UniProtKB/TrEMBL annotation:
Domain (GAF) ranges: 37-147
Superkingdom classification of source: Bacteria
Listed Gene3D superfamilies: 3.30.450.40
Annotated region (Disordered), positions in chain: 214-254
Name of this protein: GAF domain-containing protein
Pfam families documented for this protein: GAF_2
InterPro entries xrefs: GAF, GAF-like_dom_sf
Composition-biased stretches (Basic residues): 243-254
Length: 254
């Protein structure tokens, strides 16, 4: 999977920022970064703060660490207190010096395909609860499904000049629609209305207005038509969509 498309970076930044807000992260000092592992070396794809970027980039200096272990094992890794950590003492002491006292690393799955991890960082020890970890694992699985769809589309359009931003947006919009219906109990009509409302568009569209969304298959089947607006944040509850949050500025690689 290639992560150099700016739309993919923006998508990952939006969904991980949403996760941090959903678990009350801003009030708990939680930030995030996404680590890539290529040819044995780690790199930071995108980060939510200067602190999380510094802690994430510090992994380059060591042969092992939580993000490497998460990618290697395909399982989440928790570091409760960096000042007491003995599995990766070199990295742990560096992270503590950067102001990180606890962290969670969750791999995108399957790890061997993506070789990337979502990392949550906190300035105090033992910040992350089991509910936080469960939410992070669920998010990583949803993001992985979205990226698999993107990968299928990239393969499908391999003979064309490039994959356009509009085509990529259709894939991510399709994932948002399915997530609202499957995981949050919306009807398809209600999900479409919600996505249109937070996207700032009209609540209803004229009949017959469709957009083609790549289905979650092997990439060989036909495109599945669905009426779908641009990607929108996922709500927390079924009965009332949340107030639209202001987009927060995140750091991204130059």
């Amino acid at each position: 999977m290639h992560f150099n498309d700016p739309d993919i970076g923006a998508f990952l930044g939006e969904v991980v920022t949403g996760l941090v807000h959903d678990i009350g992260g801003p009030g708990r000092g939680i930030s995030w970064a996404i680590t890539l592992l290529r040819s044995g070396e780690t790199s930071t794809l995108i980060a939510g703060s200067a602190l999380s970027r510094a802690a994430d980039e510090a992994q380059r200096s060591f042969d092992d660490g939580p993000a490497r272990e998460a990618v290697r094992s395909g399982e989440f890794v928790v570091m409760g207190d960096t000042s007491l950590e003995r599995r990766w003492p070199g990295y742990a002491s560096t992270a503590a010096a950067e102001g990180v006292r606890s962290l969670v690393s969750v791999p995108l799955v399957p790890a061997e395909s993506f070789r990337a991890a979502v990392n949550l960082y906190a300035p105090w020890p033992h910040v992350f609860t089991s509910a936080d970890i469960t939410a992070a694992v669920r998010l990583a699985r949803q993001v992985s499904r979205a990226l698999i769809l993107v990968q299928q589309m990239m393969l499908r359009y391999a003979g064309s000049a490039e994959l356009s931003s509009a085509q990529l947006s259709r894939v991510l919009a399709g994932l948002a629609l399915r997530t609202l219906v499957r995981d949050y109990g919306f009807s398809e009509e209600g999900a479409l209305d919600y996505l249109r409302s937070v996207a700032g568009g009209p609540v209803r569209e004229p009949a017959g207005s469709t957009v083609h969304v790549l289905g979650a298959d092997s990439g060989q089947g036909p495109e599945v038509p669905q009426t779908s607006p641009p990607l929108a944040p996922v709500p927390r509850a079924v009965d009332a969509p949340p107030v639209r949050r202001r987009r927060r500025r995140v750091e991204s690689p130059a």
